[in-house]
Hints:
Oligomer: single chain
Structural class: alpha+beta
Number of domains: 3
Number of strands: 33
CATH architecture of the largest domain: 3-Layer(aba) Sandwich
Bound molecules: ligand BES, zinc ion
CATH superfamily of the largest domain: Zn peptidases
Helix content: 10-25%
Amino acid sequence: MNMKRLASVVMVLGCVSAFAKAPESSVPEAQAPADREVWITVGSDVAHIVNATLVGSGFAAPEQVGQKGEVTAFRVRESQLNLISRAMHDRANRCGGYIYHDTEASALASMDNTAAAQAMSSLAVTYTVDNAATVNALVAGLQEPNIRNTITQLSSYTTRYHTSSTGTTAANWLKSHWESLANGRTDVTVELYTHPSTVTTQPSVIMTIQGTTLPSEVVVLGGHLDSTSSGSTAPGADDDASGIATLTEVIRMAMVQGYRPQRTVKFMAYAAEEVGLRGSKNIADTYKANAVNVVGVLQLDMTNYQGSTIDVAMMTDYTNAAQNSFITNLISTYFNTDPNKITWSNSTCGYACSDHASWTNAGFAASIPFESLMSQYNPSIHTVNDTLARSNNNANHALKFAKVAAAYVAELAKGSVNVTDTTPPTVALTAPASGATVTGTATISATASDASGIGRVDFLVDGQVKGSVTSSPYNFAWDTASTANGSHTVAARAYDGVGNSATSSSVTVTVSNSTSTAGYDSTLKAPRCLSVSSSCDSGTLLNGRGGLGPEVNTPNTINGSCADGLSGTYHSDESNDRIKVSTTDGTPFAAGKTVKIDATVWVYSTTADKLDLYYAANATSPTWTYITTITPTAKGAQTLSATYTLPSGAVQAVRARFRYNGSVAACGTGSYNDHDDLVFAVQ
Ligand code: BES
Ligand code: ZN
């Protein structure tokens, strides 16, 4: 399929679903609010779509209350917002949304802002890059598992939709969590920022670190707390639990390092972004009205989906160009070499795509480093599938944004850290014992301690990280089947809360997962593994078909129960050449275990050749149970695999039937068909 076409389809889907309803089943309190008159501003290039959509759906044309250059303002009904935005994104084929206004005056004022605002904000501050000690101290201890855990916590709420009760529960959880990180520092406060009821009932959450020498100058780092979805849950793991979790890890480092900024720093988790940037707009407008001197704003909305080799996309529209170059300067200064290398490129995201637009419109310098180019962002956002699984269950990508945000705060708010702990943790391995032989799943255990607390313990096999644990007890279930049989070293490496690390002395163990190669059983007339192990391999016994090729003891079906076709030429026409069965967890065959069948076949045709797989609980009198049929995708030697669950039975078997045309059956008469069985012992 044409990849270009695929990319644009994906983008439309993401944006379409942006405007789906709140999850109704799970969020009864999120049902249609009183149908108030509200105002929206949209990009003028999509204004005609707003009109056409409402008229097309049987509504009166919305009143256009103003239009200035690139921005158009409409008066609509609150209940029409979802419809408008969905259609707008359907037909405009781009993201970027609308800004919600609870008064007409606000909508009209917002049209004047954009151009003037950018000119004004660019005068706000002189950018310098001269605080490397603080940047490096904040960056060194940033840890992926912490970001991952915060994403898991936030995405565990059914929804964080702004009208839902769990949307408020999530705000309260975040406030407590940030408070616990602040750990009683008197220059740090955490508040719930409540908005007028016409804006939203969800509170925003703000942490403030009071500046030491320039407290009236404010640096803002934000993301949005709310989520939305077309389905029954709105996990919003990427959009935007990732942004909040990224900021949370920067906060944790700032606190454990005793970071004291010269300028005041505010971390903000905005309410109600998904319904027109409401929380951030209310805050930014209030700050503007109160003449708060905000020198810079960094928005993190979607940080954990690596859409391409570009790590960071700097959005150049509705952002401040001078601050954007300051940030890309920071990236090239601090993150230019492995393991901290970060690549970036420019992109655009449209009118009002996230909360930075609220700050831009209020006259402040705002930027949004984004997870990918606009054409490659996470296609699962705004659906029930926006989960951490879509990022391979890790926060590696978000960690890069934590580094960028740490550099940004250290270089814009300046100030220094007060590191009191340079002592690495104490760490020791308590299992396995030196010289042990391990099979199946083996537990690796460690003890670790440190004055600043333990951030995480990594478990290493031959120096490679096999797993990490962030809290005591530090035990890890090592699947030894993922490591080759033989001698290996095992060790644990602990990181303390400020990033100091130490590695335990290592022990040498022997991995010994039993495997066996089948021998020909002249009674059953098929290859057989006599003793129980974790895998059984036919080796070379099945190589060929009928009289074609080296296959001895043909047809190698139990009791000679099914003959092979005899036409064609060895390794031009079809043959099943080898069968291997193995438990997926590396432990011995036993009832209930998942086993994998690997059948190596010679493929003649990728359309007519099919592999039928069967198993039998009792090999001495087999009843064949169908597992699956696999169509090979390439010619020549191919290994085709499937899994099934072992029934009980001491002597079991699998059958591979490789056929040319014909239909699914355990045995058939086609002249190019090969049938082979493999018998093996089970506990
Ligand atoms: N995180 C998205 C914005 C986004 C999505 C940016 C995909 C870049 C790529 C944000 O939460 C969102 O959905 N915004 C809406 C606009 C909002 C004002 C209703 C959008 O852009 O569709
Ligand atoms: Zn978002």
